From TrEMBL:
It comes from Candidatus Gottesmanbacteria bacterium RIFCSPHIGHO2_02_FULL_39_11. Residues 9-172 form the Glycosyltransferase 2-like domain. Belongs to the glycosyltransferase 2 family. SUPFAM superfamilies: Nucleotide-diphospho-sugar transferases. InterPro entries: DPM1-like, Glyco_trans_2-like, Nucleotide-diphossugar_trans. One of its GO terms (molecular function) is dolichyl-phosphate beta-D-mannosyltransferase activity. It holds the Pfam family Glycos_transf_2. This is Glycosyltransferase 2-like domain-containing protein.
Length: 240
């Protein structure tokens, strides 16, 4: 298993209170897979996140690195920043939220599914059997469900949740499509899946339970999110 070398890419915008529990649980579960793992945080905002990361770096030397930005980059740009940290030894990239919506306990299921399905990307799906989407915001649940149903039916995508950020990706997949990624905001999740699918990479999914955050506030703005998707959706025919 040590041949697996994982880079975890985690954008975090004012998530100081979630960084310690996330890192602790994440490392506990990564150790079950391989000793070769790195956590890379894209820290944005002006709360105490920088201080928290430095404490964690002292506890887990050589395992945690971060870039710091005072203003939010947008989720797409944040992931691009993280993808730049892929090196020649990296075999897999794990992407996830920093707000404890994604449970690190199921990381082994991602690897099991990738091996069984011979996939290049495994997506954690909220919209398949045994999956669930427990978010307090009705508008977010509605827009996520509608967009994913539309894409599944119209584009015949092989997965039911193309907007989930909990993913395991082979590093060569990212290297192959990275220059084609243009989106800075939330539509970046869709863009990545559409380009990957068009490029011939195999995509599968496993069920996840998406739980509401306990600490802090969501940074997803309703108006901005609708606006981003409004301008992105007409781009789909040119991508696909």
């Amino acid at each position: 298993m040590d041949k697996i070398k994982i880079l975890c890419v985690i954008p975090a915008y004012n998530e100081a209170g979630n960084l310690k529990p996330l890192t602790t649980h994440l490392i506990q579960n990564l150790k079950k897979i391989t000793s070769s793992y790195r956590l890379f945080f894209i820290i944005q905002g002006n709360d105490k996140s920088k201080m928290e990361i430095r404490k964690l770096q002292k506890k887990y030397p050589k395992k945690i690195k971060a870039d710091y930005f005072t203003r939010p980059l947008g989720i797409g740009m944040a992931y691009k920043t993280g993808f730049e940290k892929i090196n020649k030894s990296t075999t897999h990239v794990l992407t996830m939220d920093a707000d404890l919506n994604h449970d690190p306990k199921i990381i082994q299921s991602f690897f099991k599914n990738m091996k069984e399905k011979k996939s290049d990307i495994v997506v954690g799906s909220r919209f398949i059997e045994k999956g669930a989407f427990y978010d307090k915001r009705l508008w977010k649940r509605v827009i996520s469900r509608c967009i994913n149903l539309f894409l599944k039916v119209i584009l015949d995508l092989p997965i039911s949740d193309a907007t989930s950020g909990y993913r395991l990706i082979k590093s060569e997949t990212i290297s192959a499509i990275r220059k084609m990624l243009k989106e800075k905001g939330y539509p970046a999740y869709l863009e990545f899946i559409l380009i990957s699918h068009k490029s011939g990479f195999r995509i599968s999914e496993i069920p996840i339970i998406y739980t509401p955050r306990v600490w802090g506030k969501s940074k997803m703005n309703k108006i901005r999110t609708f606006k981003d998707y409004f301008f992105f959706l007409p781009r789909i025919p040119f991508i696909f």
